[in-house]
Amino acid sequence: MNATLLDRLRTDLDVRRESTGLRRDLVASGIQGPTLRVGGEILVNFASNDYLGLAADPEVLESAQRALRDLGLGVTAGRVLCGTREIHGELEAAIADLVGAEDAVLYSSCFDANLGTFDALLGRDDAVFSDALNHASLIDGIRLTSARRYVFGHADLDELERHLAACADARHRLIVTDGVFSMDGDIAALPQLAELAQHYDAALMVDDSHATGVLGATGAGTAEYYGLDGRIDVLTGTLGKALGGGAGGFVAGSHAVVETLRQVSRPYIFTNAMSPPLAAAALTAIRIARAHPELRERLAANTSWLRTALQDLGYDLLPGEHPIIPVMLRGGSLARDVAAALRRDGVLAFALSHPVVPAGEERIRVQVSASHTTNQLELAAAAFGRAYAVMAGV
Ligand SMILES: Cc1ncc(COP(=O)(O)O)c(C=O)c1O
Questions:
Q1: Does residue 376 line the site of ligand 1, with CB under 6 A?
Q2: How remote is the CA of residue 173 from the centroid of ligand 1, in Å?
Q3: Does the beta carbon of 135 lie inside 6 Å of ligand 1?
Q4: Which domains does the chain have, with CATH numbers?
Q5: Nearest CA to ligand 1 atom 13
Q6: 103 touches ligand 1 (CB under 6 Å)
Q7: Does position 394 have pLDDT exceeding 60, yes or no?
Q8: Most buried residue, 47, 68, 221, 269, by CB count within 10 Å?
Q9: Could you confirm whether 182 is annotated as catalytic?
Q10: Does the pLDDT value for residue 122 go beyond 90?
Q11: How far does the centroid of ligand 1 lie from the alpha carbon of residue 242, in Å?
């Protein structure tokens, strides 16, 4: 190993170890569900994105097993070579149908979808406007385009409008937002964003990773939640959260958007096609998510129950209705201490601190699932209650 590089990496790791500490992965075993086995402990899991509880659904798992048997594990080639199977087209059609778009195209992940979209659709004469709290994959995707880039303050429509007005000379303007913001759990103001887009002849792109399957009567996402039809030009999302939790991402939109991505988007072209078992699992998850609105009803009821319980205990929550519940525990190591106390009580939820959230905005992010039972919700509330009593010195 090159000694200069090795020295620099070791020094950087030492600095990181002393400042924020090094991340360590939690190593779990067994099937992902409302509980998780970690070593000898069984923890009630409030840290996953399995919003509809489909990750452990027997039908989802069985469809993956069937695809493994009939189609194999992988296709050993990209989509544009010999990697495309019928199931990829079926899944793309099912996604387009779910989100109400003309067409959709699969990627290995939503991270890849976001990396591969901007450079494919925009050029140096264009301008892109991105919410400051957008996901890392959008930020990185925007870095790859030669378009002019503007970041507006989180949900700051006035600042966005100023940038839009100043870019009247651009060939295209593209506004980009998360549908649901992953750290705050708030839902983007799509009606107002769509109005601004219309007024300034801009296109609107939404990353609905935390909303597909979750929001709206049929799980179509943030646009359906607001009753907005056909106002999103480019929609990206993941199959790794509510839709079975396997892996995979997509871009949905008009035929022209999707066809352009198939022709020129680098993470579509230069990588292996999605493994058939993953595609089969996602297809089944979409079918179940659409056929069972009661999953979304249970998710909403579970979320509302836990929000009320935590508020009654005296916790400060960011307002919202999405199953991401940010429990604000600002300053020092409070969030980490409470997360450790929860863990001792058999509840898994992560503390988020700088640089994931701004310093002073430390929190525990609780993520609710339709698969959480009443007992599990009560257990979480009781654990938060004990932690609160310790914090308050009661
Ligand atoms: C808003 C958002 N976009 C994209 C992603 C990436 O999704 P994937 O896991 O499919 O790459 C995530 C996952 O953390 C996310 O929260």
A1: no
A2: 24
A3: yes
A4: 19-48+293-391 (3.90.1150.10), 58-291 (3.40.640.10)
A5: 209
A6: no
A7: no
A8: 221
A9: yes
A10: yes
A11: 11
**pLDDT per position as a tens digit, 256-294:** 999 999 999 999 999 999 999 999 999 999 999 999 999
Three-class DSSP labels, the chain: CCHHHHHHHHHHHHHHHHHCCCCCCCCCECCCCCEEEECCEEEEECCCCCCCCCCCCHHHHHHHHHHHHHHCCCCCCEHHHHHCCHHHHHHHHHHHHHHCCCEEEEECCHHHHHHHHHHHHCCCCCEEEEECCCCHHHHHHHHCCCCEEEEECCCCHHHHHHHHHHCCCCCCEEEEEECECCCCCCECCHHHHHHHHHHCCEEEEEECCCCCCCCCCCCCCHHHHHCCCCCCCEEEEECCCCCCCCCCEEEEECHHHHHHHHHHCHHHHCCECCCHHHHHHHHHHHHHHHHCHHHHHHHHHHHHHHHHHHHHHCCEECCCCCCEEEEECCCCCHHHHHHHHHHHCCEECEEECCCCCCCCCCEEEEECCCCCCHHHHHHHHHHHHHHHHHHCCC
Q: Which atom of ligand 1 is nearest to the CA of 179?
A: 1
241 catalytic, yes or no? yes
